[in-house]
Write a structure and sequence with these properties.
alpha+beta; six-stranded antiparallel β-sheet; 9 strands; globular
Length: 128
């Protein structure tokens, strides 16, 4: 449910880092809390973002939620396939439901994120 090869942000974003590139998306927990996702506003490719900056929005049948950048850098790719089919995020949040790729300007920010075990404890505590 929370893959070990990912890092997790406090606002329920995941990061899969490969070199200086970070593929990002929302966690299984986040998509579960949102319910059926019906719309996503993606960030623009080419923009520079700071960690924790709002870069987009997700709308579900229950609520609207912001998307925060878990790391700083330049957005070099977006998953525009999910604009027409946002429900893919519910079906496969760690695969086909990814949101963007960031060329990290400060890869050391990954150290500020949680591993899967710590993230799982974090959401269990939040549920209490």
């Amino acid at each position: 449910m929370y893959p070990d090869d990912l890092k997790y942000h406090k606002d329920h974003m995941w990061v899969r880092a490969k070199g200086n590139r970070a593929k990002i998306g929302i966690t299984h927990y986040a998509q579960e809390q949102l319910g059926d996702i019906v719309y996503i506003e993606l960030p623009e490719a080419g923009i520079e973002v700071d960690a924790n900056a709002i870069i987009g929005e997700i709308e579900s049948t229950k609520t609207t939620s912001t998307i925060e950048a878990p790391v700083s850098g330049k957005i070099v790719e977006i998953n525009d396939g999910i604009e027409d089919m946002p429900e893919v995020i519910n079906e496969d949040p760690y695969g086909r439901g990814w949101i963007a790729v960031i060329d990290m300007s400060h890869p050391e920010e990954l150290n500020d994120l949680m591993d899967s075990r710590v993230y799982q404890n974090y959401i269990e505590e939040a549920a209490k």
